[in-house]
Amino acid sequence: MSQTRTTLITGGNSGIGEALAKRLVDKGQRVVSVGLEKPGWTHDLLAAYCADLTSLEEARTIAQEIGANHAIDCLVHNAGIILPNLLPDAKPEDILELAQLHLGAPMLLTQAALEGMISRRFGRIVFVSSRAAMGAVTRSAYSATKAGVHGMARTWALELASSGITVNVVAPGPILTDNFWGIIPKDSERQERMARNVPVGRLGAREDVAHAVEFFLDERSDFVTGQVLYVCGGTSLVGLGP
């Protein structure tokens, strides 16, 4: 990005979101983070807000507050949770909670920023989805809502293309973050076995995903919209095995 832009990152306080926030700030870009907690670091270019985006009311309130205080040029919806369960134990309530987080929250945040993006004839919207959108064991609610992200992003890409706004998706495979370690014990044999099942021979780092997101945010990427980029070490082709 050649000129100074302001990027709103959900889940900017940890994991992929934090890695992206630090990369953008290092390049002189302004970042607005919204998450359950504020980032554990500060910078003159960083503004931080706290909200539970699984709550429709909190998401609506924080969207209005951020929209009133910042001219958002780019939005990266990175916040997400998994809520894993095999089908016998899966709960419809989980679908509703994840639909609000993965779909409802970014809709409200984008709506709050949209008028400014349209008036400046520039906008970048990037969803961080998941390879699990293609299907994964224990991921009924997660896979369903992440697949929904892909459909919504493509719809927005068509609606906003004439306004200079692109909408794209980065779909990570297994990435070493707290979300991952919340399910797979850190440095366990299971983690090592999963790494061996990845075609490139390793699990992903959060910087791998941040790098891909930056491509879509770049002003020179204005001819790329409505796309899903799998940053997954090849697991979109073969799965992850048992």
Automatic annotation (TrEMBL):
<protein>
    <submittedName>
        <fullName>SDR family oxidoreductase</fullName>
    </submittedName>
</protein>
<dbReference type="InterPro" id="IPR036291">
    <property type="entry name" value="NAD(P)-bd_dom_sf"/>
</dbReference>
<dbReference type="Pfam" id="PF13561">
    <property type="entry name" value="adh_short_C2"/>
</dbReference>
<comment type="similarity">
    <text>Belongs to the short-chain dehydrogenases/reductases (SDR) family.</text>
</comment>
<dbReference type="InterPro" id="IPR020904">
    <property type="entry name" value="Sc_DH/Rdtase_CS"/>
</dbReference>
<dbReference type="InterPro" id="IPR002347">
    <property type="entry name" value="SDR_fam"/>
</dbReference>
